[in-house]
Amino acid sequence: MILKDKTILVTGGTGSMGKKLVHRLLTGELGTPKKVIVLSRDEAKQHDMRVSYLNRRVTTDEVIFNNFMNVLEFRIGDVRSYEDVCSAVKQADIIINAAALKQVPTCEYFPIQAVLTNCLGASNIVQAIEGQGYPVDTVVGISTDKACKPVNVMGMTKAVQERVFVAANILNPNTRFVCVRYGNVLASRGSVIPLFHDQIKNGGPVTLTSPEMTRFLLSLDDAVDTVFAAVKGAKRGETYVPRAPSATVMNIARALIKQRALSIKTIGVRPGEKLHEILISEEEVHHCVQRGAYYAIQPMLPELRQDEVSESNTLAKEYSSGDDVLDLADTAALLKKHRLMVEDVDAGNGLELLR
After folding, report:
1. How far, in Å, CA of 350 to CA of 340, rounded?
2. 274 part of the active site
3. pLDDT digit of tens for each residue in the chain (355 aa)?
């Protein structure tokens, strides 16, 4: 139980993935932590999250109720602020950096803001550990498929974040810095599925950027599983990547529309978007190995690979969302599995994901 009695800092812990991560941390599946600190800058989201825990009445969440006042702590602060980061980092054993500007068009119009959060925020965590000598055991950086061969600002800044954390291992031998990289999270805040739900409820049309566009699809639990796998098994400087299904945006829309008499309108690719996403590039396959249900991209820096046991490369080509795309039936089955069909959400299932 590797998280037992540990203090865990989650930056950006009020986002869709952060909320699910905090919930799973508090259930104690990897050991009941001593404390979980949520650092974010939105007091309204923190208040909503705090109230949602206080109002729960599910017996499986007893660990949350029994330890809520002692275990879960909210802090107003910003990863852009070195002082805020130092204040939170100095108590942490494990840091999960989920704070990010992640909307592709927003980052295109405000690239400096993306740099400040996605790059400077990561640097502040590293500098706090290095400059102040805080005894942090592990740092996990949350990245994205858009960081692989990036063509947009969001992906570029996340790619820099990955390199900041990988390189941090060299000057900080007592802290393990690793990353996770995954694709679109189903029904996360700002994603396409809540948009499709609203458009369907309002009678359409349902708008697509491009019918041929494909995306990797993971649930929030899949994303958290990837983080936990990295905490348990990633070596210094490695990036963990889940093996995930992919689907066309057209099939996602058609699966949600079902037999409803609604039109589909193509509006064109947004600024900075790719037609297909890539989780592992052709350059990275030469140092990519398999670890259970995950791929591990080993660091390029030779200083971080000297003590590694030789492992065989596992991929022969880049890992793209354009490969092995689900058909319509399988896309619908995936959405139904995660209770994301319109009727499921209307019945109250999956609503937590859409808040």
Report:
1. 6
2. no
3. 899 999 999 999 999 899 999 999 999 999 999 999 999 999 999 888 888 877 654 434 444 444 345 589 999 999 999 999 999 999 999 999 999 999 888 999 999 999 999 999 999 999 999 999 999 999 999 999 999 999 999 999 999 999 999 999 999 999 999 999 998 888 776 678 888 999 999 998 999 989 999 999 999 999 999 999 999 999 999 999 999 999 999 999 999 999 899 999 999 888 778 899 999 999 999 999 999 999 999 999 999 986 566 677 788 899 999 998 999 999 999 999 988 887 766 665 554 443 3
For residue 233, give the CATH number of its domain: 3.40.50.720
The pTM of the full predicted model, rounded to 2 decimals, is 0.90
Q: Which residue among 102, 146, 149, 235 is the active-site one?
A: 146
Domain range for 280 is 7-354
In a domain, 287, yes or no: yes
Structural domain tally of the chain? 1
Task: Tell me which residue of 216, 39, 230 sits closest to 144, measured CA to CA.
Answer: 216
Residue 1 forms part of a structural domain: no
- Residue 36 domain-assigned (yes or no): yes
Is residue 88 in a domain?
Answer: yes
